[in-house]
């Protein structure tokens, strides 16, 4: 089980604020170029959060698998699949 650190939670709270900001922009009928730019920034932040979670989880799983004497290649393949699915 992975624990989620405060940095990751801060990132998600920042994204939450960005989403609220985009909704306000839409309510104020801001230019679509500006709205799309903000949504793109949110997507980028989400991609970074996903990569961070996968990397941290991979590190932990590999360590546990090595301690158990198992094969880590399956864990790496699963991590790659998670990243591919999130793209």
Gist of the model:
It contains 3 helices and no strands. By secondary structure, the chain is an all-alpha fold.
What can you see in these coordinates?
The protein contains three helices and no strands. The chain is mostly helical and 87 residues long. It is elongated and about 60 Å long. The two termini are 24 Å apart.
Observed structural traits:
87 residues; 3 helices; 0% strand
- Mean pLDDT equals 90
Proportion of residues in helical segments: over 70%
Structural class, judged by helices and strands? mainly alpha
H/I helix tally: 3
The number of E-state strands comes to 0
Oligomer: single chain
Shape: elongated
Which ranges are low-confidence, i.e. pLDDT below 50, for 5 or more consecutive residues?
none
Give a short account of the largest sheet: none
Order of helices and strands: HHH
Radius of gyration: 17 Å
Distance between the termini: 24 Å
Strand content: under 5%
What layout of secondary structure does this protein have?
Blueprint: H1 6-27, H2 32-67, H3 73-86
